[in-house]
Amino acid sequence: MGLLDRLLGKKTDEHAEVRPLWHAIVSLARTPRWYAELGLADTVPGRFDAVALVMALVLLRMEREPELVRKSILLTELFVTDMDAQLRETGLGDMVVGKHVSKLMGALGGRMDALRGGLAGTEPLEAALERNMSLVEGATAAGLAAEVRALADLLDTCDAAGLLAGRIAP
């Protein structure tokens, strides 16, 4: 962006290319089936877990394709921006929002590591999900694990353009 554009207030959305993917991630995470059938708790932590789960699966897919690595950074920035806004809506002040966002980023990284191991078979996926997700009391992660595997497989079939366009719905 040139100096004149900055002075005139013209802004370009550097996240425009990944914004459709972010909306698709949030939409998938809000699918009622996660909560009604697969055992995720329909609570604020459970909803964060769903967003972080889908986001982690998408980031794992993106890290395997060199042209998507930089775009994964932009996608992560959207995640941070959204989580920051959500925390502020709950009434958290400036002094603590950063600390909470850091914890949420750590949780996202933990989900990625757990899913990486679970999908690769180095540990049972069900155990990784039970350890990292807010499940309703008495729920097992077997159905959730099957859904996660199916979503990971679906993401593997997406080409880069389709993924960035948010075409990941089953």
Give a structural overview.
This protein is 71% helix and 0% strand. It has one domain (16-164). The model has no long low-confidence stretch (mean pLDDT 85). With 170 residues, the chain is mainly alpha-helical. α4 runs parallel beside α8 and α5 crosses α6 (94-120).
Task: Please render the helix and strand layout as text.
Blueprint: H1 3-8, H2 19-29, H3 32-36, H4 44-62, H5 66-89, H6 94-120, H7 125-132, H8 142-157, H9 160-164
Q: Which value, in Å, is the CA radius of gyration?
A: 17 Å
Roughly how many Å apart are the termini?
A: 38 Å
Number of strands: 0
One letter per element, helices H and strands E, the order comes to HHHHHHHHH
**Whole-number count of domains:** 1
Q: From the helix content, strand content and strand pairing, which structural class follows?
A: mainly alpha
Largest sheet: none
What is the approximate shape? Answer: globular
Mean of pLDDT: 85
Low-confidence stretches: none
> Percent range for helical residues?
over 70%
Number of helices: 9
Estimate what percentage of residues fall within beta strands. Answer: under 5%
